[in-house]
Amino acid sequence: MNPASSMTAQRTMTDYQMALLAQIFRIIVKEIKSDEDKNLLAPGEIGVSYTEGCFYVKNPTTGELFCPNSVAHISQITSKFDPDTKLLNSDMVNGIHLYSSISQLTQLGVSLSMDSIIRQMEEPAILTSLVEYENYETMGFPSNSGIVTVFKSSPEAVLCQYYDNHSMITYTGRYNTQQNLFVGWTSLSPSSYYAETTSSGSSISCVISGSLADLDVLCLYATADIDENATLRVNGASEKPLVDVNGDSWGYPILANNIIMLIYDEQNESFVVCDAASSTVMQVMKLVCQRLNAANTRLEWAIQDYQQRFTDMANTIEQMEERLNTTISNAVSLLKARPGLIDARMSTQTIAIDSTDTINHVEDFDPNFDKLIVIFGQTILQPTTDFVIEEEGSLVFQKIRFNAGDILQFIVFKQADPES
Length: 420
Known about the structure:
There is one protein chain. The protein is of the alpha+beta class. The chain contains 7 helices and 27 strands. The protein has a 7-stranded mixed β-sheet, covered by helices on one side. Strands 14-16-19-20-18-17-15 form a 7-stranded mixed β-sheet, with no helix packed on it. It starts with a helix and ends with a strand. The N terminus is likely disordered.
């Protein structure tokens, strides 16, 4: 045998050998029974779904799962298509059910509501759907036009939001995790009303269901152009100006088909036009802070005023004490200049009749020899200026009239005869 030809010749297997090896070495592809089995495929591994009739391969480079059978893609679509409603049922991405319409969640045959919608969602799931229902109140939606979004990871973990297309207000759903029950909607904005203008120009008006309270928010749709420095009348009430957050007149026109947010400022009898760059909550808080700062300023002024009054009162009392001491000292000095001993006697007298201007008798007072001091409240009344002493000892007051219950104090300095 030629060695060269023996080296180049390749041995082949007979048909019998091939059949024998095929019986020994068989390839059994992993069966795919669920979405979890698909995700558990190793990079480069092949799986087969006998139910779907297709192979699944995980790309060893990108890790992406793909199906080389185009028939499988068609079967996935047809399996989710409802020929009666002509709508696709929930799609799935990485095991998450996606719902794009509320009509996909009407299988139970019960009254459609947020609670029944949530219960029918197969978790984990996400629902984003347009809401267009005239009976929205019965169904439990905030308005007849909006977008509802629901995230459900378990029967206990549910997050709901609703966006109102009319008022542009976002609502958050309240969900009872203990009872797995949808309770209702709460607004992320302050108490809000929606209305459309029924007039145009510089004097506009609108009608709402209810009445505005202080710091309520009014979502106003301009059906026609609104002039600058305009006023607004709500439910036929008095006109109130549109102002900015600082209280200055709103000096810009508002074109038709625009929506503006207004905050009712009851204290200043005006409507504050909200800045589109800030939330209504922040602007309401800014108004509240402005009020608190103004109240704090008024309180500081009041404290300063009371402190000044107290200081003035203290100075007045001090001056009165000095006057009293001076008067008494002068009286004592005068009495000391006269012969005899000095005896100071005090008495009081309560006025019995209103408009009294005469005191007929002062106890122990002799006008010929004694010195008299008259005190009313904290004021020392001056002789000749405030009262006159008659010869018989009565006191006649010039411009002062006493009322019943007033109390007068008298200090009589008597000069006694040293020999008596």
